[in-house]
Amino acid sequence: SSESDDYHSAPHIQQYHSQANEDRLYRLTSNLQDTTRNLKDLDRMLDDYTSLGQSKKSAIDRIRGDLDRTQDDIRYEHHRGHIIDRDYESDSENYSSPSKSQHPRHRSAVRFADDMNRELHGIHQSVRDISSEQMKLEESFNKEMDRRERLESDTRRSLQDLNSTLKGVSGLDPLSARVEKRLQAIQSEIRAERQVLDRDRNGDFNTLSSELRNAIHSA
């Protein structure tokens, strides 16, 4: 009879729905595992951003310290040069004709000028080395940023797939909302960290470049 057919078909319908739910839960579990790994990668990414910013700041501080010492050397050498030139001119005014006492001072001034030229040449080379290190640091930073952006894009796609699966399973909408909220929070943290790093990088490098140019001009 019809009632008998309905009675016997009910278990098959229940079994079908049970299998469908098991398949959905399996896919959900797999996606959750992938998402967990990606979220951990994103958390590590934020740590890497912070570490990179600290390393960059330390390198710039070290370069700026070298530059400060270089500028001090330049000012010191210029000051010494002015004193010797002044003393030599004073001696020249005190004597109407060259005397033997003048020759040692003149030779000393010439030797000092040669020494100062060699030292200034070394200072120029040091400044060029610092500028080259700055360029390498900026190149490394840009490569790191590109790698982070690729990982962020891959993670976003994975979480979007997860959200699609969550929305297809009845009663799991709150979980989907929590995952989406977590994703948005992480993305906001990444954007904020990137803006801070970009601002610090541009400000520090521009300031350092200006100081380098001033040091070269002073020399």
From TrEMBL:
GO terms for cellular component: centriole; spindle pole. It comes from the Eukaryota. Residues 1-22, 78-107 are annotated as: Disordered. It comes from Arion vulgaris. This is Uncharacterized protein. PANTHER family: CENTROSOMAL PROTEIN OF 128 KDA. Residues 78-89 have a biased composition (Basic and acidic residues).
